[in-house]
Design brief:
single chain, 145 residues, mainly alpha, 4 helices
């Protein structure tokens, strides 16, 4: 009957699809030009930032659908918000931010706020899209089956 509990449950598996999808998009659109991996590093980089996001999203699409509810969306967005807070706090203490677009010292508060808002909106948009896809695929499966 499909996903059951834990990370295989509908909301956590969709949440991971959102997180991995955004990770891939941010890497491709913002971070990939910051370094030029060679040899085994190139393979690891390609696997982690290109192959894994695509395969996970395809796997999620191939799974059962129709169990996600809009009320679950807020919980999915909590983790990225907490991670943002953690990254800014650790960066402030250490002077080293995990991503250049969160570097408070270099960009100032408004620059970081703008970048965080853009990434946050991307999380909301992708999550809403996947929730809608899940609902449509679930409705189609119930109609056909």
């Amino acid at each position: 009957r499909g996903r059951t509990g834990g990370m295989a449950a509908p909301a956590p598996s969709a949440a991971v699809a959102v997180y991995i999808g955004i990770t891939g998009l941010v890497y491709v659109l913002v971070l990939r030009t910051l370094w030029h991996p060679q040899g085994l590093h190139w393979w690891a980089d390609t696997g982690l930032h290109y192959v894994v996001p695509v395969l996970y999203l395809l796997g999620w699409l191939a799974g059962p659908h129709g169990q996600l509810r809009w009320r679950q969306l807020g919980g999915v967005l909590l983790f990225p918000a907490l991670y943002l807070g953690w990254a800014l706090l650790v960066g402030r203490w250490s002077g080293q931010y995990p991503y250049p677009f969160l570097d408070l010292a270099a960009l100032g508060g408004m620059g970081v706020a703008r970048n965080a808002a853009v990434v946050g909106l991307a999380f909301v948009a992708l999550a809403a899209l996947l929730w809608r896809i899940d609902m449509r695929m679930g409705a189609r499966a119930h109609t056909v089956g």
